[in-house]
Amino acid sequence: MNQFFIRSLLVLSFVVFYQAYSTADETVSIEGTYVLESRVLSDGTVIKPPQIMGLYNLEAGYVNFNLANKDQSGKIQSVSYIGKYKFTETEYFQEILFVTVNDEIGGTGMNYDFTKKSGTSAVKIADGKIEFPFPPNNAILATFENKTFKAKPANGAYTDNWKKVD
Fold first, then answer.
1. Structure pTM?
2. What's the distance, Cα to Cα, between the start and end of the chain in Å?
């Protein structure tokens, strides 16, 4: 009876230790490379590559974002930025180091901005979803879920649908 009790205690200890170890390893993360699959406009119109393309990479504390779209007349609109980020279960911090915008559609052409911009926003995690507005201006709400993420501006003009590829 004593050996049975000791063995049971050892097995129970192992199970408790294993569960504690495995859940400690499971951290919430948004890190990875995402490819834009589509943009859905507020009127329901769906735009897909090659009319719109994007690549978004979050890795080792650095962010690299590229998005380009072409209107029906062939004019281009693109934005690219590089920066740093820090993600925790309560906050998302982002510092943009460099931005380039080409807005032929809006008529402003190329613009390069080396002004650092940073901000922090609150992270909400519930039901397998991670949500936060992108700083520094918090104008776009990001929702990460499984291997996807959606980006939607506050005005609801569109929703970008991204898929994690790594």
1. 0.82
2. 52
